[in-house]
C-alpha cells in the first residue's frame, strides 16, 4: 500500500518524538480530526504506529507484549465499570480476566463462580466470595473441564457472565484457539442474565478453530479503543471501546 504525502509526513513527525496528540497532528497538517484519524487507522493497519487514547506514537519493535497488557487492562477496567456491589459474576479465564480480578476487590457482597483455580485463588486472597467448579484440571492452565463444570453451571444463575475469546467475526461469531475451551465458555455464558464478551481489537474479523457462540448471544462486547470505526456497524451497537491509559507513554512534562 502506497502512503499519501500526508501519511508520510505523519510518520516523519512521529519519528521526532515519543508521543503526539491527534489534535496536534491535525493542527500541524491543517486538516480536521476525522481526516487525521483515518490516516492513523491506515498506518496502524500497516503496523507502522501504535494508537493510544488521544494520541499516537511510532511502533516500538519490542513493545508488543507491553502494549498487549496495556490494552488488556483497558478492557478489564471497562468490564469492571459494569459491575456493582452485591452482584454475582461467572468468570472464565484468560489474560484480561487475570487483570480484572484485582479490580473486583473493592466491591462489597460480590460472589464469583469460576472455572479456573488460579482465578479462584486470587479472588480468595482479596476477600471475594468465590466458588470453583469441580472438574479435571488442564495441566498448566488452572482451568477445570469436564461434566462437573457443565453440571455446576446448569444450576447457576448470575447477574453477569464474562468470558474472553480469541476471534470475533460478524458471521463466524465468537471463536477460540483451543477447542477444549468451548464447552466451558458456553457453560459460563449460559449462566448469565447478562453476557459480556471481552476481546482485544486484534481479535476482530478473525476466525479461530473453536466456535463458541453467535454474536447475538452477547449483550455487550468490550474491546479497546484501537478498533476501527468501520468495524462497529456489523456488531449492532454491542461494542464498547475503552480508552487506553497513556500516562506511561507520555514523556515527562507532556507531549
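^ C-alpha cells above, recovered residues below v
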Amino acid at each position: 500500500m502506497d502512503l499519501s504525502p500526508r501519511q508520510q509526513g505523519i510518520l516523519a513527525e512521529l519519528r521526532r518524538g515519543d508521543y503526539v496528540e491527534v489534535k496536534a497532528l491535525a493542527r500541524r497538517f491543517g486538516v480536521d480530526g476525522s481526516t487525521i484519524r483515518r490516516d492513523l487507522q491506515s498506518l496502524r493497519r500497516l503496523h507502522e504506529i501504535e494508537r493510544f487514547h488521544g494520541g499516537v506514537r511510532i511502533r516500538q519493535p519490542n513493545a508488543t507484549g507491553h502494549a498487549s497488557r496495556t490494552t488488556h487492562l483497558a478492557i478489564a477496567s471497562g468490564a469492571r465499570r459494569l459491575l456493582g456491589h452485591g452482584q454475582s459474576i461467572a468468570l472464565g479465564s484468560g489474560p484480561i480476566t487475570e487483570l480484572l480480578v484485582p479490580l473486583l476487590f473493592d466491591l462489597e457482597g460480590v460472589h464469583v463462580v469460576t472455572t479456573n483455580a488460579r482465578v479462584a485463588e486470587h479472588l480468595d486472597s482479596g476477600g471475594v466470595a468465590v466458588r470453583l467448579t469441580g472438574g479435571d484440571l488442564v495441566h498448566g492452565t488452572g482451568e477445570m473441564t469436564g461434566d462437573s463444570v457443565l453440571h455446576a453451571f446448569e444450576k447457576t444463575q448470575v447477574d453477569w457472565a464474562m468470558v474472553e475469546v480469541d476471534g470475533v467475526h460478524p458471521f463466524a461469531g465468537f471463536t477460540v484457539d483451543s477447542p477444549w475451551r468451548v464447552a466451558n465458555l458456553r457453560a459460563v455464558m449460559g449462566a448469565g442474565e447478562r453476557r459480556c464478551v471481552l476481546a482485544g481489537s486484534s481479535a476482530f474479523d478473525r476466525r479461530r478453530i473453536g466456535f463458541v457462540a453467535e454474536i447475538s448471544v452477547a449483550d455487550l462486547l468490550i474491546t479497546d479503543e484501537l478498533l476501527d470505526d468501520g468495524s462497529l456497524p456489523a456488531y449492532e451497537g454491542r461494542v464498547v471501546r475503552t480508552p487506553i491509559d497513556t500516562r506511561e507513554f507520555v514523556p515527562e512534562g507532556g507531549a
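Confidence is low (pLDDT under 50) at residues 62-66, 248-255.
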